[in-house]
Amino acid sequence: MALSGLFLVLFLAQHFTINFTSVIAPDTFNELSHFMGTNFLVQAVLQPVLIFGVCFHFIMGFVLEIHNRKARAISYVKYNGSANSSWMSRNMIYSGAVILAFLALHFYDFWVPELVHKYVQSHPEDPTRYYEETIAKFESPVRTGLYVISFIFLMLHLLHGFASSFQSVGWNNKYSKGIQGFTKAFAIIIPLGFIFIAVFHYINNL
Ligand code: HEM
């Protein structure tokens, strides 16, 4: 769980960086998107690894939850979870489920049309189409709202998940405090950044 989670965090960092260019430099966004969408290494190696990483993380998350529930078939008479654990850590399965639902919407929005564009319809290559296609998705207030809510759950998920992944892989040394600080900052700043991108394009579309 921890290793696949750390891998997905790396993906999030690059995904955020590329998407942020849609706010400050549309031409750069088009260039980067075209590169990612047509480069052989990205398409044939990185994309399948990413899809595997996403599926593995979600399936293992559900398996782990089932194991945890089975481990205590009879629940405590009195259980005060907040005494020694955070709300986020006790509800990773729910924040994860919201992110999974978001990914279904997100793939329907971006990935499916991209596959249709590339492999079903035969359009000539157009390296400048990505920016317009992306911002068009944020014309709808409902979709923008759903994205924003999902990014808040992403924040909650990362606040516990990113920090605890280092602990899970046994990284416990004099740098742990600094790493904890970095993971918390990342968990807050990246989802806020995604919210900013979605709201920016929504307002820009008005
Ligand atoms: C405002 C925020 C976001 C925007 C504008 C955005 C935009 C995009 C775009 C344009 C694609 C390309 C589809 C393609 O051409 O293949 C994509 C793919 C994807 N996005 Fe996002 N995204 C956002 C947030 C997120 C978040 C928060 C996650 C994860 C929780 C995510 C996960 C993915 C994944 C897994 C893919 C498929 C990657 C691939 O092409 O292999 N996205 N997104």
From TrEMBL:
<feature type="transmembrane region" description="Helical">
    <location>
        <begin position="185"/>
        <end position="203"/>
    </location>
</feature>
<dbReference type="InterPro" id="IPR011138">
    <property type="entry name" value="Cytochrome_b-558"/>
</dbReference>
<feature type="transmembrane region" description="Helical">
    <location>
        <begin position="146"/>
        <end position="164"/>
    </location>
</feature>
<feature type="transmembrane region" description="Helical">
    <location>
        <begin position="45"/>
        <end position="66"/>
    </location>
</feature>
<protein>
    <submittedName>
        <fullName>Succinate dehydrogenase</fullName>
    </submittedName>
</protein>
<feature type="transmembrane region" description="Helical">
    <location>
        <begin position="87"/>
        <end position="108"/>
    </location>
</feature>
<keyword id="KW-1133">Transmembrane helix</keyword>
<keyword id="KW-0812">Transmembrane</keyword>
<dbReference type="InterPro" id="IPR034804">
    <property type="entry name" value="SQR/QFR_C/D"/>
</dbReference>
<keyword id="KW-0472">Membrane</keyword>
